[in-house]
Structures are given as C-alpha cells and as structure tokens.
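User: I'm curious what two different proteins look like when written out as structure tokens. Can you demonstrate?

Assistant: Sure. I'll show them one after the other, since each token string lines up with its own sequence. Here's the first protein:
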Amino acid sequence: MRTYSHALFSFCAARRLAPAQPGVVAWTTLRAAGPDLPALAGVVWLGARRRRWFTRQEFCEEACEKGPFGGPDAAPHSALPVVLLLALRKTSGAKDPRSMAFLLGWAGHVLADALTHAEDARPILWPLSKRRFASQISYWDRAHYALLFALVEHAALLLLAARMLRSRKTGPPTRG
C-alpha cells in the first residue's frame, strides 16, 4: 500500500473513532506513514549516489536491504516492536489515548504491508527472524494484481475524500 494511503485511511479511522481528539488523529496518521520514512530517505540517498533513474529492484536491494537504511527500514515494518510496545503499554497501565493511537497506526501499517507486498515483503518478525511473509497481492507489481489493487485502493481513497468533504458541510463526524 502506498504511504499516502496508509496516512489517509488511518486519518479517517482515527477521526471517526476520536472526533473530539485532534491529537489522537494526528498521532495515528503520523505513525501510519512513519514506517515508510526510512524508505523515502533511501530514495533520496540512492538518487544522490547514482544521479540517474533506478529501478524498484535496485532500490529494494541497495537502499532498503544493504544500504544505510536496511535495518532501520526493517524495524518499523516489523510486527515485533508493535506487539512488544502494546504489551508494555497494557502492563504499565498507560491511559494516554495518543500512545494507543500511535501504536494502532503503526500496527495498521504493518498489517496492510503484510497483505500488499509480494516480492518486496519485509521481515515480519525482524530482528528475531529474517523470514518474509510474501502476499499474493502486490500494490506495485503487475504480476501480483497491482493494477486491480491500485484501482480498488484509489477508488476507496476517492470515496473517503468525498465523504470527508461532505461531512465538512454537515458538521463533525459522529460515532455510530
């Protein structure tokens, strides 16, 4: 799934669940897009090194796996830190909704990526395991239904945008 889709879907979900708490909405949206920041930095790094266009395969191999962002790119895409932090939050008795929103945004990103990355899947339990869960669907690889996925993803984004615009005219969202 694309970074902007992670952010918008999480924004809409958080806005629906916590309409009176803009901080919660912001933290959820930030964390949902956050795991992709090392990969975006990798694009800049590889582009500066190469000074030419590069393929997605070259990017995945050089910037995300063996480049300077290999570990940092794997860590935010791993389910392990999210699960451990959720367990720590639960056992510590933390009540701040922003921390829960932050972790749920992160968990949503990891889950969505697990379902939409085929050949470029990241290690789901990094650093304990380098095993990758490769989905049958890819958000970018045409050999794994990318065109159909892109159509569905962007149709959903358009529907969400239309709903958000309509709700601005009628007032804040309500639960239910």
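Here's a second, unrelated protein for contrast:
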Amino acid sequence: MAGFELVGVHDSGTVPAGATTLPTAALSSVSLSPTAVVGGSTSQGTVQLTSAAPSGGAVVALSSSNTSAAGVPASVSVAAGGTSATFTITTNAVSTATTVTIAGTYNAVTRNPSLTVSPAGGGGGGPLAAPSLTSPASDARFSPGQNITFDWTDVSGAASYTIQIDDADTFPAPQIVNQNATASTYSTSTLPTKRMWWRVRANDAAGNPAAWSAVRRFEVKS
C-alpha cells in the first residue's frame, strides 16, 4: 500500500550484520594427577572446557569403570564464565594392579583417561621384597675417577629405588651417596678414594620403603 514502509523486520533465520555468536563450550580434556596411586590414596581430576561455561555453569557427568577400585562424584560443575574444575578420586585397596577408566561427559563429548590403582607393597599385597645386589662384586677395587655402575635386581611393584654408599657399614647420616633412581642401576665417577659399602632398597608408588638389601664392600684406591 502506497505511503507505508516496513522498518526493522528481519528473517528469523538470519543473524543481523555485525552480530557475534558465542562458541558453545565443549569438554576439552579430563586429566588426572597422579595417574597411578596405591589403593587407599586419592588422585585429583581436572575437567577443562574449550571455552567459558555458559550462564548457570556447566555440569560435567563423571563415571568410573570400576567403582570397587576407584570412585568419583556423579558430576562436577564448572562455574559460569570458568573453563575448569577439579574433583577428587577415592580409591580402595586392591590385590593386583588395576586400570580404571575415569570418564567425563559434557555436550555429547566424552574424555576418558586411565588411573592405575596398585596394591600396597606390590603385586601380592604384602611388603616389597629387598633387591639382590648384582655388581660390583664384594671387595671390588676401582681407580680414582673411574665410572662405577651399581646394579641390582628388579623388584616387582617397585616405583623407585634408593641407593646408599658410605664409608661405614652402618650408614650414619649424612651418607656419601643417598640417591633415588627409577631404574635398577646407578652410575658415578666422583666417589672418594677410600673403602666404602653400598646397599639398596625399593620404594612403592606411594614412596613407602621396603627392607634394605644386603651390604657389599668395595674400594676406590690409587
């Protein structure tokens, strides 16, 4: 009809020029720290979103593939405008090492890292065994500055080892060497020129030490 003009009418399916659409937040990752624990210990989980949580927050659903070994809350909430939140994983004693999948789901996206739950003291649920010393042999002799490799047997369930070297077979503190190692070997070329003794013990994933090995004597001599 002449003399009339429609103003401000837009098609409902069209975004006005210059308007900005905010990205929809999705689940970016679920991380665990630590990823391996002894049964009865806890681990912390963190959910991370790809962008800020919407008004009202974001509720990430959580689940465990083996609730008898590791339990999680039903969900964890990321506050509005935030991008991450943490939750606690509780574990129970196990008789053998158990891998548990911890799943987080939000906006149809699932992330599922793994947590290893180990028995206290190793595979049999008892204390770790003492390692057996392999080399050097008893009363071995070395030249000053010579690289010496100390080797011992692997211990089932051990997460690390502690080696001590001292000039007294009672190992009073401080020792010449008091060193942690992840492998069942240790090398050094900086030992003093004297008669010394060495011993090793295993540690579990929680850092609990086992019994010391037997003691061996050796000498660095000019």
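A detail about the second structure: Residues 6-15 have pLDDT under 50 and may be disordered.
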